[in-house]
Amino acid sequence: MKHIPSQTYLWIAVTLFAASNSIVRKLTNIGTQHLIDGRNPISACNVLFVSNLCALMVLIPVFRRQLTRQSLQALSRQDWAILIVVSVLSGAIAPALIFIALSQAMVNNVILVGRIEPPLILALSVWILHDRLNRWEVIGTLISLVGVIFTITLQHPSSSPVAMGLLALGQGEILTILGVSAAAIATVISKAKLDHISLGLYTIVRLIVGTIVFFILAVKLYRVEHFIDVASPLLWQWMLLYGIVIVVIGQLCWFRGLRMSTTSEAALVNSFSPVLGIVAAYLILGEQPLFAHYVGGSIILLGLLFNQIGIWQKTSSKSSAIGTNLIQQIGARTGFKGI
Fold first, then answer.
1. Which residues pair with 36 in a beta bridge?
2. For residues 338 and 98, what is the distance between their CA atoms, to the nearest angstrom?
3. What is the structure's pLDDT at 122?
4. Distance separating alpha carbons of residues 306 and 324, to the nearest angstrom
5. End-to-end Cα, the chain, rounded Å
């Protein structure tokens, strides 16, 4: 393990995260072939709820040394309040919206439209935290936004980029934007207020609170009968695999890679996420990219390249590994990838 290059961990994590959207869609398709009294046992709600439970069963033993009475008592009421808000946003609302979006839009659309999350995080960081961006980051952010716009408008030839607004957006794309917006807000809040909380405590609390809140919201919206198939052997069979491989192995590789890497190295590997996601959609679902995906994706990659240059300039004089603060910031976005 000690001889494995840090970037190997990052590539494993990013590949798993990039494939997760397609895997979720594939699993729900499998569920439609094994209906129970006309119901899909592998519905989006069941996938999110059960896979989080599976992840907790593995992550709690992994982080048990950080889950002490002393560490819990050390958190102030304000810490708990902020942690709960972040958990609700990134552990319940964001993944729920993305999962619903996957049932209503092409996976490639969800992947590329979801790339507005990094620009949102940068904008919120400048506005709320007064972070300073260099010109390369600003240019990269604007180019990435243009790529997202082209991804949408080229699928609606009758709409111009100026007149497009929300009219050219399908419900799936709108849900994607709302989901990544919730995740972006959670990331900025965690960056500002939760940098002193240990990674294990942060991860476990976020998963527990997110799972509980999601269950309550789903019951309020759809009634408890919505989870009638939550004990289905077919569901648990796939969720044990999905929860352990995507949520647990993905996050642990990501965290380990981040601890051993520089910011620029992590950003470079993560920039390939859209490409890996589109490839996964083709290999797993047979989803052929449209002309709009090629054009929009190419523009987004160009924006990511400029962002990478900006990050490299900021960190060129530093070779230290990424600290816990940044790990928690990124962790707020990795709870349930494809999200």
1. 39
2. 8
3. 82
4. 26
5. 28
Residue 46, Cβ density class (10 Å: 0-12 exposed, 13-18 middle, ≥19 buried):
buried
331 pLDDT higher than 60: no
Residue type, 261: S
How far apart, in Å, are the Cα atoms of 260 and each of 230, 231, 255?
A: 39, 40, 9
Answer whether 0.85 is exceeded by the pTM.
no
Q: Which of 39, 43, 45 is nearest to 28 (CA)?
A: 43
Query: Is the Cβ–Cβ distance between 134 and 314 less than 8 Å?
Result: yes
Here the tokens at position 120 are 């949102």
Contact 136, 309 (CB under 8 A): yes
Question: 66 near 200, Cβ under 8 Å?
Answer: yes
pLDDT tens profile 216-229:
988 888 888 888 99
- For 162-175, give one letter per residue: b (16+ CB within 10 A) or e: eeeeeebbbebbbb
Half-sphere exposure in the Cβ direction for 161 (13 Å, CA): 9
The arithmetic mean of pLDDT across residues 162-174, rounded, is: 64
Whole-angstrom distance, CA of residue 178 vs CA of residue 1 = 39
Confirm if 84 and 123 have CB atoms less than 8 A apart.
no
CA distance 271 to 279: 14
Q: How would DSSP label each residue in 19-41?
A: HHHHHHHHHHHHHHTS-BTTB-T
Contacts of 230 by beta carbon, 8 Å cutoff, 6+ apart:
46, 49, 50
Q: What is the DSSP string of 219-286?
A: HHHH-GGGGTTTT-HHHHHHHHHHIIIIIIIHHHHHHHHHHTS-HHHHHHHHTTHHHHHHHHIIIII-
- How far is it, in rounded angstroms, from Cα 307 to Cα 61? 37
258 contacts 251 by C-beta, under 8 angstroms: no
Q: How many CB atoms lie within 10 A of CB 27?
A: 22
